[in-house]
Each structure stands twice: as C-alpha cells, then as structure tokens.
Amino acid sequence: MNTDQKALQELLFQLADDDFILAYRGSEWLGLAPHIEEDVAFSSMSQDTMGHAVMFYEMLEELGAGTADDLAQLRKPQDFRNAVLVERPNGTGHYMEQPNYDWAYAVARTYLYELFKWVRLEALMSSSYQPLVQISRKMMTELRYHLMHWQTWTKHLAGGGQESRDRLQAAIAQVCQDIEGLFSFGPHADAIVAAGLIADASTLKARWLEKASDALAKNGLALPDAFPAPSHDGRAGEHTEQLADVLNTLSEVYRLDPAAAW
Amino acid sequence: MTEETLWSLLQEVKDPEIPAISLVEMGMVNKAVVEDGIVRIEVLPTFVGCPALEIMKRNISEIVGAAEGVKEVHVQFVFEPAWTSDRISEVGREKLKTFGIAPPPDLLQIEESFEAACPFCGSSQTRLDNLFGPAACRSILYCESCKNPFEAMKPV
Ligand SMILES: [Zn+2]
C-alpha cells in the first residue's frame, strides 16, 4: 500500500469508528432517556449515526480493507481509530444493571461531537476523494436535525434552574477533558493532509471552537479556556478498557458465527 | 423490454414504510436503463442509514426481474445527485397526505425548524412536537385546529 492509500484508509477508519462507537453509546440510552419522545429521537439519531459508520466501512470494503461487517465486528481494540471521547461510558453502572447514566453528559458529548462532525464533513466537501465529497453533503442534511435537537436540549437544561445549569456546565468541562483527541489525525496526519483528503487539524479546531462557543454562548454557557492533552491517542490505537468492553458486547452475536447470513 | 415498460414496473415498487407511494413518486429513481435484457437501476437513498434500503433493493429485483425478457437486474445506490425532499413529485405529495403524512415543505423555507400544514384538515395552526418520529425521515407534529397528531416528512 502506498502512502496515499494508507492515508485514505486511516482517515476512513477515524470517520467510521468515531460514528460507530458513539452510535453504540447512544443506543445504550434506549429505554433510559428522560421521556418517551426522547427515547424515539435519540434512537433515531443513533440509527443515523450508525448508518454513517456503515457507509464509511463500505468505502473501506471497496478499497479492499475487508468486509464492512468484519471491520466493525472483528477488529481488536488497538485497531480502532476513534477518539477516546466517544468510548467513554454514559455513567456508572451498566445498561442492564443500575445504569446511573448522566443525561447532561449525553447532551454535552453528543452535541459537541456532532458540531465537530459538522465541521469535519464541511471540510470533506472539498476532499480530493470524490466519494467523501458526495457522502458528506448528504450526511450534513441529516446532521442538521441532530444539531437542532441538541441545541433545544442545551437551551432547556441551561434554563432549567441552577442545578440543571451547573450539571450541564460540569458535563461540558468533562467532555472537554477529551475533546483534543477529536482534532488529531493520528500518526498519518501529514500524509492525510498532503493527499488533500481534508483540511489540517488546526483549521478544523478553529472552526469548531467558533461554532461550539457560539452554540453555548446563546445559552449563557462557555467552553473551558484550555483543553488538556488527551489521556490516550485513540487515532494511534490507544484506548481505555471501556472500548474492549464495548466491542465485546457489540460483536458477541456476530462472533458466534461470522458466516451466518442476516 | 422498453424503458417505458421498465419505468411503469418501477411505479409498482412501493416505499416499504409508506406503501401508498412508489419509489418513482418519491423521486428516488435516478436512472433506469435496459440493454439486451440487462437492467441497471440507480436509486438515491433518502437517508444514508435508512433500514428500508435493502428491502427496496430486493423488491425492485423481484418485480423487475419477473418481467419477460429480463436476464439480470442490477440495483445500485448512488449519492450523486443527492436525493432531496424537493424531488418528491406532485402526485407523490398528494399521496403522502392521503396516508396521513404531511409532505415536506420547500427546502428554502427552513431555518432553525420547519412548519407543515395538517394533512387531515389543512390547517397551518400546527406545532412541532418532536423532530424525530417513527422513522429517520419523519417528524411528529400536532394540529391545534383538529387536535390530531400527525407525521411530516422532513425537508432535507
Ligand atoms: Zn388538523
């Protein structure tokens, strides 16, 4: 594989794995969201996000990286390229047992991630790889509704009294502990940018900062002044124990019989 | 088989989630060509992760494949051009209404949110209850006039 091909595959794994793992975390909220309408909405958005991951895995399949199902279900944690932010658990406990999930964290994480995704897709619209240009335009039309939804929640929680507001602000600070990991393109960053696949990481970060600050400022909230270096570089395959846990659950059925027809 | 016959067969393929309307009326068929019994059809997905896509593909293959003189049917999903809700035909929009779903408003009319007239009584006194309905492509609204909840296709 030459440098350009390697760069393209690395970028596609980042795009696919970010969406795949976050969609899984979102799906863990099923039945636990604050009300039934939110259950429907969050599940619908997680389904969109999972669908986007599938598209990226299928692009990898076309490049000969393996079948989309195998890429999603059979890789080891160290082969995943998602940022650590998306693998963080929803709270303490397990969805089957005492799920002490934090709704403020769900709102903050999903909103700040999806604002980043918007900026990243916008940059992909000028990618040198044509399939990414076409798909990102389509994905943005869907993502737009997610952003409207999370803006509504942000407004709701920010205006919902002192405790609600404090908890949301604390959740934003917690998300920002990991946010820097999103802006990394990993060890192949130079080749990814040199191939014209996407704008460089600092450009994306500057655009995200502007969008995220505006979105929060509308509700009297703010981003922290500085973001720490990430604890693990997910783009280099460094992950927390939580990712192994996610993958075990996700692929439990698939691993029983990878040859089964679905 | 002529292309005209092919298009009329495609008119028989309905949206699995809204059986009142065909894929043609939804504006989802981008191209349909036939050459020496080999049919090639390009379909534009409404939503990237729509779970009904595989069902549509199968239904197209079954209906078109059963026609006389057809040897192979190839269905491909493409994103160029992108499907937009403005592609739904006038007939399609009327059929959506009879199914109780408000057709999507014009794309240019939406900013932060969108409005749609009630498919039952036609009133524009409606409010958006939930952007996300039973399928990714629909929202849930409520009519203040006839007091009915209804679904609307999202403008995308
Ligand atoms: Zn009405």
From TrEMBL, chain A:
<dbReference type="InterPro" id="IPR011882">
    <property type="entry name" value="PaaC"/>
</dbReference>
<dbReference type="GO" id="GO:0010124">
    <property type="term" value="P:phenylacetate catabolic process"/>
</dbReference>
<protein>
    <submittedName>
        <fullName>Phenylacetate-CoA oxygenase</fullName>
    </submittedName>
</protein>
<dbReference type="InterPro" id="IPR052703">
    <property type="entry name" value="Aromatic_CoA_ox/epox"/>
</dbReference>
<dbReference type="Pfam" id="PF05138">
    <property type="entry name" value="PaaA_PaaC"/>
</dbReference>
<dbReference type="InterPro" id="IPR012347">
    <property type="entry name" value="Ferritin-like"/>
</dbReference>
<dbReference type="GO" id="GO:0005829">
    <property type="term" value="C:cytosol"/>
</dbReference>
<dbReference type="InterPro" id="IPR009078">
    <property type="entry name" value="Ferritin-like_SF"/>
</dbReference>
<dbReference type="InterPro" id="IPR007814">
    <property type="entry name" value="PaaA_PaaC"/>
</dbReference>
Automatic annotation (TrEMBL), chain B:
<dbReference type="InterPro" id="IPR052339">
    <property type="entry name" value="Fe-S_Maturation_MIP18"/>
</dbReference>
<feature type="domain" description="MIP18 family-like">
    <location>
        <begin position="4"/>
        <end position="75"/>
    </location>
</feature>
<dbReference type="Pfam" id="PF01883">
    <property type="entry name" value="FeS_assembly_P"/>
</dbReference>
<dbReference type="InterPro" id="IPR056572">
    <property type="entry name" value="Zn_ribbon_PaaD"/>
</dbReference>
<dbReference type="InterPro" id="IPR002744">
    <property type="entry name" value="MIP18-like"/>
</dbReference>
<dbReference type="InterPro" id="IPR034904">
    <property type="entry name" value="FSCA_dom_sf"/>
</dbReference>
<dbReference type="Pfam" id="PF23451">
    <property type="entry name" value="Zn_ribbon_PaaD"/>
</dbReference>
<feature type="domain" description="PaaD zinc beta ribbon">
    <location>
        <begin position="108"/>
        <end position="154"/>
    </location>
</feature>
<protein>
    <submittedName>
        <fullName>Phenylacetate-CoA oxygenase</fullName>
    </submittedName>
</protein>
<dbReference type="InterPro" id="IPR011883">
    <property type="entry name" value="PaaD-like"/>
</dbReference>
